[in-house]
Write a structure and sequence with these properties.
By secondary structure, this protein is an all-alpha fold. The protein has one domain.
Length: about 70
């Protein structure tokens, strides 16, 4: 589903940018990039679960990691 939405939004974005509809084209491009990021994350989680190397598979852990303080 993410792949289909990504392609559709990317095509619509390109069409709107060529028609000089800048705001609409950029919004659609951002939506396409967000779905591409979700697709990439889903592929990475699936690979790690398949290889049984899933250390941080829960979304809460994934979101907390950049916010954790590093200990010296």
């Amino acid at each position: 589903m993410c792949l289909i939405v990504t392609f559709v939004m990317l095509i619509l974005s390109i069409q709107n940018l060529l028609a000089q509809e800048w705001v609409l084209g950029l919004v659609q491009l951002l939506i396409a990039l967000a779905f591409l990021l979700l697709l990439w994350r889903n592929i990475q989680l699936t690979r790690s679960q398949r290889n049984q190397t899933c250390k941080e598979c829960s979304p809460s852990q994934w979101l907390k990691n950049p916010l954790n303080k590093k200990e010296s």
